[in-house]
Amino acid sequence: MKLIITLITLTLLSFHAVGQDQDLHLKDLEALNLALQKTPGYRDQIRGERKKAYDLLFQELKSASIGPSALDTFYHFSRLLGPIRDMHLGFWQVWDRTVSMDKLQDSAYISAYQHTPAFKKVSFVTLNLDSLQHALQKMPLDSIEGIYSAGKFGTVGIFRTKVRDSLVAACLSPGFRNSRPGEIFGIFREHSKDKFRGVYVSPITKSLIYSRDIGFQKGIFSRLELRKPGASTRAELWNTKPFTYGKLSGKFQYLHLGSFQSSNSNLKVAKAFHDQVKDSLSAPDLIVDLRGNSGGGDRCSEQFLKLIRTYARHGRVHILVNRFVMSNAEQFTLKLKGRKNVKVYGETTAGVIAYGKNYGDPVTLPSGRFQLYNTDMKDTGNYLRYEEVGIAPDIPLNESSDWISQVMALIGI
Question: In sequence order, which residues have a C-beta less than 8 Å from that of residue 266 and are 6 or more positions away?
């Protein structure tokens, strides 16, 4: 990809905001800084030398020139979140909440959208797309660079730039007419091996979103729903039901705990499921499948924690986790990991564990363009060492065969 990297010229940092625009940028940046300083992650971590580095970054961002596009501005602001290890923090561009998949198929809506400033001021890569596509087609499955399917939204090309550890994603073939070939879909920086932070564009609303939780593994960019042709994994499990119980054999029982959300509706379903299975767990081995559980709260998970701890007094517990297990589900895993008769299998979890949000709306910056999803829950469990890192399994599983079958084979069933 040496040819490609020498050709790319992004719009980022290539123009200058002046006058009223600059004043607006500064007000937004200062408001973002103040809001971040109130978060528990900032208070826990930004001290001493880290505080000096954060303050220097803030001053650099205040004095730097910003390009004219929303992408330029948003990417610039998003850098202020980088020093704070808090995966629950969110930052996004305010979007039209009436936009839906149905509208993307409405010719009248698309025609009107194509005349808006938002459509006309989208950032593009300035290189030959045919040359780019030709070069990316040669990339192997395990290379980060290459052509990815975005499902209904078309194809995306991802390639490295001159900047160390940086990637750009560009739309190659749009699935809907709210996008065009060559549009910048995302800009990412690698902060550890195969893990990225960056900014990407929602393919539905075309709003900008900051993410520090983007991972690459064997042709798949998680969180962005991007896959190379031929990329597949048996690590994923997406079940339409939040809870499932089953008997796999005379010696194995199975629980899928897919959500610990504390909404009234989920709490009701969780309680009914708990009451249904609490007196049924009698097999020598129990698989507890947490794959895809994005967390929730103790109000939901605590009943299952007590149930499994009780079971582990006489039976063996085998917990399945993947990269989509996060937050309260990760805390749940740690409370069981290392206990007698408990083993954790699979792959490293998401590392979205230390903080959270209980109350209040996101903070809207003065311009009304951007919002910060600010956290308010402290790290009461000393989980910071797992933030951004995740929880490693006791026994890794491969992605090429069924995980439940692998566990049963490992223990000789």
Answer: 242, 259, 296, 300
